[in-house]
Specification:
The chain is an alpha/beta fold and 326 residues long. It contains eleven helices and ten strands. An eight-stranded parallel barrel has the order 1-2-3-4-5-6-7-8. Helix 2 runs parallel beside helix 3. The chain binds a DNA duplex (15 and 15 nucleotides) through helix 1.
DNA sequence: ACCTGTCAAGTCTGG
DNA sequence: CCAGACTTGACAGGT
């Protein structure tokens, strides 16, 4: 089994390379020259895209093949103050450069729109801004020239006191969307509301791939065990996709705060999972969600490479050998 | 240079 | 019905 690892948005190793710089709405308003304020926002966006390129070069140097873009590349873009603003023509060359680099080096990239993108909502205005947000994320992928292998990962959303109704609303609202947008979406189980089994059910209804978050399942399992049969169903949602299944891993911050994310990732729970699925899954991608980002990734690789059943393929890819053929 | 409070968003909880 | 918690990285203003 071949497993690749990646990290989210920002680097702990590359200094001053934030891809998420922004401006507050308050300070935008406080600038008397609106034209100048908009130009400032555009400069920040260009800086975020330039830093994203720096991070991709860093990823190439460290042989990191998996990366999630920041969802805050363009500051205030969804704010009502800037409803008339369209910065994308200006930013198109920068997006294209990023996409060219991703394709040239065979990287797998994604977005994770923030948790206020909620397709299960009963509110018309929330649904409308959720559509806008997804549209904008897919537009950015389009500007990069990336196809449906590049995903926007979201959660089901709120339950509003009735999970069944909320899931049905999600399905209906999803089906209303342009199929092009839908082809870029993955669904992930969350840490409070929709469990892995519930999320999987929605994925199967919509024929959408599911990103399993192992940590979320630990704190919000609904009593369901993550066994090989459940994994086979999850893996099946990736059939026909041109990318391997992806999972998220992170470790609990503490006993007091089991849902929080710790700085680094414990290897033992991950290894148990990988050893369970290795016979049915030849290729897997693992996104680390740790506070220490790429530093956590390198530390995990350092620990994994010492194990007898693991061989490093490159700096962030392992081969897990099958030591239990039965 | 560093520290503390504030900011974006939607949902959920408590009062 | 409304205020506050939740989450996260970064701004903003202070020392």
């Amino acid at each position: 089994m071949i497993v690749r690892f990646g990290y989210v948005a920002m680097s702990m190793l590359v200094k001053n390379a934030s891809p998420s710089k922004t401006m507050t709405a308050t300070s935008f308003i406080s600038l008397s020259d609106r034209e100048a304020a908009v130009r400032k926002l555009e400069r920040i966006a260009e800086e975020n895209l330039a830093n994203t390129m720096r991070l991709l070069r860093h990823n190439r140097a460290y042989e990191v093949h998996l990366y999630r873009f920041s969802s805050k590349l363009v500051p205030l873009v969804s704010h009502e103050l800037l409803a008339e603003w369209n910065p994308f023509p200006l930013l198109e060359p920068a997006f294209r450069d990023i996409g060219d680099y991703v394709k040239e080096h065979d990287m797998r990239v994604s977005f994770h729109p923030d948790h206020f993108t909620v397709l299960s909502t009963p509110k018309e205005d929330v649904l409308s801004s959720s559509y806008d947000d997804l549209k904008r994320h897919v537009l950015m992928l389009d500007l990069m020239g990336l196809d449906e292998r590049a995903k926007c990962n979201i959660h089901i959303g709120g339950a509003y006191g009735n999970k069944e109704a909320a899931m049905n609303r999600f399905v209906t609202n999803f089906e209303q969307m342009d199929a092009h947008i839908g082809s870029h979406i993955t669904l992930e189980n969350d840490d409070k509301t929709f469990t892995a089994v519930e999320t999987l059910g929605v994925c199967e209804r919509l024929n959408v791939p599911m990103v399993l978050d192992v940590h979320h399942h630990q704190v919000n399992s609904g009593g369901d065990e993550l066994d090989i049969e459940l994994w086979k169903r999850i893996a099946r949602t990736w059939e026909g996709q041109r990318v391997p299944p992806k999972i998220h891993v992170s470790s609990p911050k503490s006993e007091k705060d089991p849902r929080g994310h710790s700085d680094y990732v414990e290897e033992e729970p991950l290894l148990r999972f990988l050893r369970m699925i290795q016979e049915v899954t030849p290729n897997l991608d693992v996104m680390l969600e740790a506070k220490m980002k790429d530093a956590a990734l390198l530390r995990l690789m350092d620990k994994l490479q010492k194990l007898d059943d693991i061989r490093l393929v490159d700096q962030t890819t392992i081969e897990l050998k099958n030591t239990n053929p039965s």
